[in-house]
Amino acid sequence: MTDTPALLQRRFQLAEHTRTIYFVTVEQLVKPEDVLKPDFWRHVASQLRPYDEIIVATDSCEWRMQLLVCDVWHCGARVVELSRFDMSGQEEEDQTVGDDLRVKWRGPVNKWCVVRTDGVILRGGLDNKNVAMETLAAIAQERAAIGN
After folding, report:
1. How many Cβ atoms are within 10 Å of 142's Cβ, its own excluded?
2. In the chain, fewer beta carbons within 10 Å around the N or the C end?
3. Structure pTM?
4. Distance CA 36, CA 32 (A)
5. CA torsion, points 9, 11, 15, 18, in degrees to nearest 10?
6. Distance between CA atoms of 116 and 104, rounded to whole angstroms?
């Protein structure tokens, strides 16, 4: 016999039986620091358990985080950050028309969009870049026809 502890069979389980992995898409205004606050999880706390994992990404694909649930109560959850990936600055060159209109990929929710330089989406949910470019050209023609 050795003094080294050995794992008991009853403590050896498939991960699928002991924890759940969630994927959350948050709005662009939500910051990584917001999802680390217990109160952020108040509406879904009843669904969470310790050791659950949560993958959080923004609509616009700016960042992505992996979280571990440590503690849960009726109106919140304590989570810790396992990893974070900042995807801002990873975009390809914008397609532009004029000084204030651009075509941008805004993530799996908004898809391809025509946006102003201040970030306001004029048309969203476009299936591909070509459709977005055609929409951009149409908006530019409408603006030219009315004088702006």
Report:
1. 10
2. N
3. 0.67
4. 7
5. 130
6. 10
